């Protein structure tokens, strides 16, 4: 029986060393908060995307190993959804020497529908969330709400009872709850079950991508594209022909991966949200 993604094997360690050199990351053994911030900030530029997830799960759910996530990113510009990104980053941080654990979170469409990490630095727990692209470690043990300014806008982390931490965003209608983290680390079985269930979610019916660059936050959902920067937010509805070009140009995925995934979606009943790309 093959090892699960959080059980590190030799190929993962080789991929981590390749990534460390390719990205000029801190050396192993440097386990302070500054080193963690550098790694998390660089990892945040790996795109959130479900095209590669669709391809590996087209016959049966397939949990990609950290080494595969890294190889796919370096070769094809791919990333992953929150579960594969969390598992890969968790293993990378453990390889560095940190104590890292997976967390599950509830969203409005169901429990355990998001994942993140708890990373311990000098006896203090920090939240790291590659799926929501929180690009720096955030203390998990704060007793008061934390206000963050990130490329995706302002976020508020508000402690709740029963080891929970709610993430909210301000808007015209007041604060909107985005998700609620369970700050008690999940065991690996819980994490894998949630990951496997995610292959059947509604979000697998259309392209969903998000990518953070030093000065922009890029988002694509179906045919809807949004670019947010200091200059403002640009929103567009894309034509069928524009979708693959936008994915390649703005999210960095290679043409072959895009072509295969979009072809699969057009073969599914109802197309993307009832529309055909």
How is this structure best described in words?
With 277 residues, the chain is α+β, with helices and mostly antiparallel strands. It has one domain: Arylamine N-acetyltransferase fold (2-Layer Sandwich). 32% of the residues lie in helices and 32% in strands. The chain has 8 helices and 13 strands. The protein has helices spanning 10-23, 33-43, 51-56, 66-76, 82-96, 188-197, 242-251, 255-267; strands at residues 48-49, 99-107, 110-121, 124-129, 134-139, 146-150, 153-160, 164-171, 174-182, 208-212, 216-221, 224-229, 232-237. Strands 5-4-3-2-9-8-7-6 form an 8-stranded antiparallel beta sheet. A 5-stranded antiparallel beta sheet has the order 1-10-11-12-13. Helix 1 (10-23) runs parallel beside helix 4 (66-76), helix 4 (66-76) packs across helix 5 and helix 7 (242-251) crosses helix 8 (255-267). The radius of gyration is 18 Å and the shape is globular. Mean pLDDT is 91; it is low at 269-277.
């Amino acid at each position: 029986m093959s090892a699960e993604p959080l059980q590190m094997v030799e190929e993962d360690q080789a991929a981590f060393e390749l990534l460390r050199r390719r990205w000029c990351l801190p050396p192993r053994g440097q386990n302070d908060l500054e080193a963690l911030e550098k790694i998390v900030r660089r990892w945040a530029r790996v795109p959130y995307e479900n095209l590669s997830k669709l391809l590996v799960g087209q016959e049966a759910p397939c949990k990609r190993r950290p080494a595969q996530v890294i190889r796919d990113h370096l070769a094809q510009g791919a990333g992953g959804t929150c579960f594969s990104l969390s598992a890969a980053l968790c293993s990378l941080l453990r390889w560095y020497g940190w104590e890292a654990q997976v967390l599950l979170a509830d969203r409005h469409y169901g429990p355990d529908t998001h994942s993140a990490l708890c990373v311990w630095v000098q006896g203090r727990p920090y939240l790291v969330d590659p799926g929501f692209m929180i690009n720096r470690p955030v203390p998990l043990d704060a007793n008061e709400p934390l206000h963050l300014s990130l490329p995706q806008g302002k976020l508020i982390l508000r402690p709740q009872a029963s080891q929970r931490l709610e993430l909210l965003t301000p808007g015209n209608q007041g604060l909107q709850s985005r998700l609620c983290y369970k700050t008690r680390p999940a065991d690996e079985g819980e994490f894998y079950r949630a990951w496997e269930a995610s292959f059947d979610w509604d979000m697998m019916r259309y392209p969903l991508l998000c990518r953070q660059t030093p000065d922009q936050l890029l988002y694509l959902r179906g045919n809807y594209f949004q670019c947010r920067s200091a200059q403002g937010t640009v929103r567009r509805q894309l034509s069928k022909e524009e979708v693959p070009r936008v994915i390649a140009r703005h999210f960095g995925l290679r043409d072959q991966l895009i072509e295969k995934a979009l072809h699969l979606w057009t073969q599914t009943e109802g197309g993307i949200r009832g529309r055909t790309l």
